[in-house]
Amino acid sequence: MKIEMLNVGWVTGSAAIWRRDEDPEKQLRFPVPAYVIETETERILVDTGLHPGACADPSAFYGGPAMSLFSFELDQPVHEQVDPATIDRIVITHLHYDHVGGLSLLPSSIPIVVQRREWEAGGDTGAIERNFFYPRDYVNDEREVILVDGDHDLLGDGSVELLLTPGHTPGHQSVRIGEDLVLGIDVTHFASGLDDHRLPAFADDHAEQRRSAERLRALRDGGARVIPGHDPDVLRPGPVTV
Ligand SMILES: [Zn+2]
What is the pLDDT of residues 70-83, one digit of tens each? Predict the structure, then answer.
């Protein structure tokens, strides 16, 4: 099993949005990763990063004022970093623009795997507004959507397990690979969040997110490496080692 981190781009915004008790005047710039998991039999893409159009002009691409709070930089879009013809399926961890934004760049023959709770929230007006989802990222997309409910053995052999870790969004999922590695994604943006719970100012459910952080902390304390979602001090493009 090989795991590689791709860096699609960067987001910059007020630090206080991303970590509680930060100085709102301070700007924080963090990486936007995607991952490729290569098993004996298939290649799985985890998340799709930012869309180049969103990086060029976020407000125009998505509409609405919220995006004016951020600036985006593109390193390289996901479909230029992997050969899409080699990807068998795409795991979407959640429907935020920095995870699903690049989906439309990938052939519609590749199915996505997403938690049912997340997908249903992505079709609910109140949940869309509360969670800053942008439906243009994932609607009108002809591909097959494979919905899962809770923890899910992705390949049927226990090697890759999707973990339902809600709170950041209604059906956020993390990815456990073997016994020793967990892509925690946005349960915590920063590695320290597992311990200090200085989580983002926004969430679908803050209490549920803290419980998910506790779950990942227990896996870490049990010996697994838990990779946070956007920690510039931790994330490095290239092979991911335990
Ligand atoms: Zn994110």
Answer: 899 999 999 999 99
Question: Of 151, 159, 220, nearest to 188 (Cα)?
Answer: 220
Q: Which residues have CB less than 5 Å away from ligand 1 (the ion)?
A: 98, 186
- Run of H or E residues at 181: strand 181-185
The alpha-helical segments, DSSP class H, found in the chain are 15-18, 52-56, 58-62, 78-81, 97-100, 116-121, 125-131, 193-196, 206-221
Q: How far apart, in whole angstroms, are the C-alpha atoms of residue 200 and residue 193? A: 10
- Is residue 182 within 8 A of residue 226, CB to CB? The reply is yes
Residue 2 Cα to ligand 1 middle (Å): 23
Distances, alpha carbon 179 to alpha carbons 115, 152, 172, 240, in Å: 22, 15, 20, 14
CA of 81 to the centre of ligand 1 (A): 19
Cα Rg of the chain, angstroms: 16
For residues 70 and 61, the answer to whether their CB atoms sit within 8 Å is no
Tens of pLDDT, residue by residue over 137-191, are: 999 888 999 999 999 999 999 999 999 999 999 999 999 999 999 999 999 999 9
pTM over 0.85: yes
- pLDDT value, residue 68: 76
Q: Facing residues of 164 across strands?
A: 173
- Ligand 1 centroid to residue 230 C-alpha, Å: 7
